[in-house]
Amino acid sequence: MTDRSRTRLIVLQVLVFSLLAALGGRLWYMQVVAGQEYQAAASENRIREVVTPAVRGAILDAQGRPLVQNRTSLVVSVDRSTILDLPNDGKPVVRKLADVLRAPYPKLDKQLTLCGSPGAADPPICWNGSPYQPIPVAEDVPSGVALQVMERSEEFPGVTAEMTAVRDYPKPFGVNAAHLLGYIGPINADELAAAEKQDGRRGSTYTSFDLVGRAGLEQVYDEYLRGKPGVKKLAVDSAGNVTGTVAERDATPGDYLVTSIDAHVQKVVEDQLKAAIDRAHVAVENGTDSGYPADTGAAVVMEVDTGRVVAMASYPDYNPALWVGGVTNNQYERLASEKANFPLINRAISGEYAPASTFKIVGAAAAAAAGYSLDGPYQCSDQFVVPGSTQSFTNFEAGMNEPMTVARALEVSCNTVFFGLAYNMYVDEGGLDAGPDAPEYLMNTARGFGYGSATGIDLPGENAGRIPDRQWRRDYWAANKDFYCNFDEQGSPQEVNDSYFQQLYAELCVDGYQTRPGDAILSVIGQGDVLSTPLQTARAYAAIANGGTLYRPQVARAVMSPEGEVVKEFEPKDQGQVPATGATVQYIQNALANVPVSGSAAYRYTTFPLDKLPIAAKTGTGQVEGKASTSWFASYAPADDPKYVVLMMVPEGGTGSGTSAPSVNEIYKAIFGVEGSQLIPSKAIVPDGKPITSLPTVNPDGTIDLPKDDGLPGSSASGIPAANTGEKKSKRNSRRRRARAL
Amino acid sequence: MTLGYPQTIAPARRRRQSLRSRATSRDSLLRRFDWVLFIAALGLSVAGAVLVYSATRVAAAGEDPQAYLKRHLLNLVIGLGLGFATMLFDYRTLRAYAPFVYIASVVGLVAVLVVGTEVNGAQAWIQLPGGFSIQPSEFMKVALAVGLAMLLAERRDGETEPQLPDVAFALLVAAIPIGLVMLQPDLGTAVVMGMIVLGILAVAGIRIWWLVALLALGVVGAFVAVQVGVLDQYQIDRLLAFANPDLDPQGVGYNTNQARIAVGSGGLFGAGLFQGTQTGGEFVPEQQTDFIFTVVGEELGFVGSAGLLLLFGVLIWRALRIAMRAEDLFGTLMATGIVCWFTFQMFQNVGMVIGIMPVTGVPLPFVSYGGTSMFANWMAIGLLENVHLRRSVR
């Protein structure tokens, strides 16, 4: 062999071992350095997850009555992978199943088609979930049909009939409570993406076919109610055949949400709100016999010492059960329509109205804070003329033309007394020329009473109301100046030709940023630009009732596990003291206590045993441009030991005492047990007429001890699980009844 | 290992000795036999049997889960027999038969284009009765090693390097089968053949710039092949998918992706023999043949994979040693051809599995399931032993 050959053999040798080394190095990198990544990829490769939805937690009233629970529904599901392995892609089996279910075969076939595959129908008809998830094809199947499927399982491979939980509304006492409870709906893509991002791992708690809370408590407490879905991790081979179970986690049912709602009170409030609206329709306005057009309303019952909401109603309401199984487009459009008066809106927290005379408690507190004597005396005249001008503001009802204290002015709701106080405070602030740092007695007091900012209640969609302080007015003018100053071009033809509007907008264009005497004067009686939600007003009255503390309104009391443990308790949240001394608060309390006795609402209390159940109240009749007046009645009781605030308001419903007061009285009668002129505590629908302080008992098996008057229908077919019916029957005579809040 | 055939024994006399007596002259034959080479090759084959079993252990209902194992072991036995037979003929007498071996292989390659069966896009197999099939291109590698060694070992007096006509003729001889293989088309085998040719030419001592020119020709040829469309789209796809598996995640990219996941997930020690989920779930297509390395990668981890590479290292080291110590240039060149064959085929196969080489369907020598490949590999071992046995003592 020549040297050249030898050299080249050596070169070849070097080359050979270099190649081997390259392979070894790459292997080291892949298997040792980056091995973890590949292992993750391998497990993703071979593991498919099958998700069992968790049973959603029930929502209970303060005594454990189920407001929302679940009922079982027989659901027939088809395991797609099993079916497809059958001869002819399992079509004969699906055909046979369609016959048994009395459903058209094409419908079943579409339901079993994966979304996005060729020829698939649109969601939700096609299957949007995992191909390894059994696909539900029929719900609420009669048990006879389900039995056919299960007993002939060899004829129906891959077909199962199972009891599945769906949302159910037992309606104790017939309550609706839709605005409190809310509803659930399918998760949307954005929410799913957000949840996945938060969870870090794909689909660990949310899946694309999940239902999430869409409104009310269902939305706010979704994280507690939803539970954790069960996950079965199946090993599959490359063809998708299941080769074994890698891991299995059972579904954890959602927790129970205990609310401070009393179902019985809620029902009474709902009925009385409706009654007030009906009353408005037949009321006589200023001597004419046409009723008020009232078609909406709101009412709130709240514990004064905690801010807990005992009842809350908004009219019109809707049936939350419409969402079970998916609301249809037509249904939703109707619910969201103006024609139906937007029943989805919870007017108690979202509606913003001029609080009218109920706002006078703020005027009284502000006057005291500004250094005016509440004892007066102040003249309650027919009209108030702004000094130095011809502008005058009349009393709502004819003035009494007598000097009186502020307390008496509250009692009889004399506007002119408050006009005078408001004008004086306005002048004290600096009047038209008040600088940015000038005190704002009325507006700051209003804010201190919680007006102008959201209460923070645990319900979605709350509005903040409006307190038109000087800064607000400047901002508002800046935003609308263009319109004021170009009114000729931008105004509606009708207004443009009206000399009143011509003058109004011409003035606004020049000095609309100023808070003028008239603004201050209208504000003090809760008119002009002041807006409040019913809940804000209720909270302010609760603060007067409890001596001056604002509590955040709250619906939830506790989260309890289905085993009965308390997961979380929601303590009352103190939001601070109102800007009034103890003496002032007490002064206002006394004044309000006289309203039913000798004030604006006295005529409604001629037969009411005020001696046994004293009530503190304030009427309000809001003026709305071009509409009938708004009826307000804000109250608390017992006046000497306040427990509950009851507030009702009916837009376009007439006067506060005329329309709302009778309904509020009926609510008090029910809560405290008033019959005729007697107070009978045993008739009180709230035990002893006192707020409930203990949580209901949830037994380890998930059943709940119910009060004697659970308001639930007996063993009717209204959705109490069949399995529990026997238990209920056998315990009918025992003092406590139980219901399983599935 | 110091005693050999006495130099004085003339070829004529040796030819007279009966085959039987030579095989049984234990004192010389068995002691000159390269046991390390043999054991490395046998180790690879046995490891292959285990891996093939693991890759095919999940059988469809009614099928024998050991079917592939049994066939692999049968192939091994036949291969051992062929290798033994190859070893017994004095390789120098093979020179006389080389043209016939070559021509027979070329005929086989032509036949495969006429009556062959297409598998995975390459028409490389001839179906035989009884479920057997034969892949002529595997035998062609043996023929090339022998044939080119014969052509280039012939020297006239005073010549220290192959002359142009010899080289040209050798290239022509090589070009015919390579061209035929490309027509199947089986790019991987063609490249391995090209490497055999290149290795033998280099060690034969052709001028360095001829070598460079040949390499350049190969590169330009490949470029032209891609441009002109000689290559089928699937071949180009495969080449692209190697660079970026996401290009075609359900096609070629799927294969490379799954292969990398399998090997990578093995970690240091692997999932355990017969425990691999990638292997058990049959995520990697062709995992008992071209992608057999995924099985060792996943189930035995880096330790097992490196061990397998080490066996190849030993095998190639012994083959190179035989090339170095061969009695004559013919033996050296033949051994060199086999070294190149094993080295590049192994590199190409493992490289494509772990993503540093394009996906071209060549089996992993000794390890992959496949009869013809096994036979040809063991014949090559027989040739190496043949050269080793008949070397002179230095």
What does this structure look like?
The complex is a heterodimer of chains A (about 750) and B (about 400). Chain A has 26 helices and 27 strands. In chain A, a hairpin with a 5-residue loop joins strand 11 and strand 12. Among the domains of chain A are: about 370-440 and about 470-530, no CATH class; about 710-740, no CATH class. The N and C termini of chain A lie far apart (about 90 Å). Chain B has about 400 residues and is mostly helical. Chain B has one domain (about 50-390). Chain B has helices at about 10-15, 20-25, 25-30, 35-55, 65-90, 90-115, 135-155, 165-185, 185-205, 210-230, 235-245, 250-265, 275-280, 295-325, 330-355, 370-390, and strands at about 115-120, 120-125, 135. Chain B has a 3-stranded antiparallel beta sheet, with helices on one face. The longest helix of chain B has about 35 residues, at about 295-325. Chain B is globular. At the A-B interface, helix 1 and helix 2 of A face helix 9, helix 12, helix 13, helix 14 and helix 15 of B.
Low-confidence stretches of chain A: 715-742
| Biggest pleated sheet of chain A | 7 strands, mixed
Q: Can you give the helix content of chain B as a percent range? A: 55-70%
Which structural category fits the helices and strands of chain A? alpha+beta
Shape of chain B: globular
Biggest β-sheet description of chain B: 3 strands, antiparallel
**Cα end-to-end separation of chain A:** 91 Å
Number of strands of chain A: 27
Topology pattern of chain B, helix = H, strand = E = HHHHHHEEEHHHHHHHHHH
Structural class of chain B: mainly alpha
Oligomer: heterodimer
State the strand order across the main sheet of chain B: 1-2-3
Q: What is the CA-CA span between the terminal residues of chain B?
A: 11 Å
H/I helix tally of chain B: 16
Shape of chain A: elongated
The interface involving the most residues is between: A-B, 40 and 51 residues
Strand content of chain A: 15-25%
